[in-house]
Amino acid sequence: MNRKTVVLPVLAGLLAPTLAACGTQQGSSAGGDPIVVGTTDHFTVSKRAPAPFDPAAAYDVAAWSVMRNTFQTLLRSPRTGTTPVPEAADRCGFTDTRNEQYRCTLRKDLTFSNGHALDAKDVAFSLQRVKRINHKGGPAVLFGNLDRVEALGKREIAFHLKKPDATFPYKLTTPAAAVVDSETYPADSLTTGSQLVGSGPYALGGIDAESATLTRNPHYKGGLTPHNDKIELRFFDTSRAMEKALEDDKIDVMGRTISPGQVSRLDAGQDEGIELVEQPGQEIRYLAFDTKKGPTAKKAVRQAMAQLVDRKEIVRDAYDRSAEPLYSLVPAGLTAHRNSFFNKYGEPDPKRAESILRAAGIDKPVKLTLTYTTDHYGDATAEEFALLKRQLNRSGLFDVRVKGVKWDAFRPAATGGRYAVWGYGWYADFPDADNFIAPFFEEDNFLGSTYTNRRIRDTIIPQTRRQTERSATADSFGRAQDIVADEVPVLPLWQGKQYLAARDDITGVEWALNSSSVLQLWELGRGHDG
Predict the structure, then answer these.
(1) Are 287 and 206 found together in one domain?
(2) Containing domain of residue 304, as a range?
(3) 4: nearest Cα among 266, 335, 291, 360
(4) Has residue 9 been placed in a domain?
(5) Can you tell me the distance from the alpha carbon of 174 to that of 412, in angstroms, rounded to the nearest whole number?
């Protein structure tokens, strides 16, 4: 076993990774066997999810990992740093000093995987479609500030924003802004099934319950250089089955989800042909609350929970230190991060929690159900919620039960307001504090939450979006984090690290996950130690 710790540029002063790849970047699977990547993600077509890869509906890291490789966006995140760079666009930029008008010029001769030409009308159609469909729990929230899009000829696109937004270029890097074929996709409804038509580096071939094939798209014209011709995504029901497939050389790369126990086991393993890559990440996990009805409508109940939760115990016992305690929605590593929850509550203290409830006249024990999803965030989630239950109940202040629900039912129930307290994860759409504040507290937020704070919504978010120099937003976002710690509409728990394990003839593994945990499959190649 070889272990490699990589410092992601976004999280470490924009420094490039300090360790070289175990194989040469010239390695490629061109003309050979596909690179097989294991995952515990599954993509099923159902009534709740009729189109798992439709940009107007998909808003989770699993689907985006497929979409990032098959669709094009006007801009993309760079390998190092945070400033977006052109992808389908040849150039982009604001055309006014208020950051309200944004214009892009497309590359010449762009083509979809079905052979249809891609032009400005397809870009305008794609963004308008996301807003028009406005799928519940979908990514339309990212474009709530977009007033209209104009196609100016074949290659020019103009975006008119309702209010200044310096983060708009970052939003154009996300699969929510994926360009779809206006001749193929319906304008007012979602597609059905799992097929997709994009212009990215790969085309999605066959997909079934066991695997999916991504083949290099011969029509692709963009800024990426794929190091392989074909990727096979192989779906596993458990992380352990995926680990065994890696050990048996039946897959080349082990992706989502590697459990904390597997990190320790792989790190201590005897197989010298496997490399484990560790990176800091921006994945966060938190509890969300119904702040309008039931016991969690009372701020004191939420504050008492914040006073009792022991993040260090969760990270140590449920995640075997493969994560870090998190005391804010904005993760460590971003400029605007502030430990607001620790500053307000300090270490867990049952006596202080009791005084919070007593001052509010709340009888104890407070009865609650904590709901989590059993099959989306990894095997350790059940232990995490068992620990949360013990932490709250051993204080004598709460009478908590936990309930596990499969993701297919969990997600619509959570956004539909059916749970009092539920566990959710967030993978950043782009590496900026705005993306850890606005999606939670704007009017049409992705949680479906009715919680409102006018200072965050009407002052802090608009103010920070007028600031092109993003480091200058730290104080304003710090105030937002302090408000969240006081009112506790959500309760941050931990910040994850990222892991991939791969056979040692696979190159580019250290580049294959971006800071949002989305797979960049074009980085993977097949080579030799060098």
Answers:
(1) no
(2) 280-495
(3) 266
(4) no
(5) 22
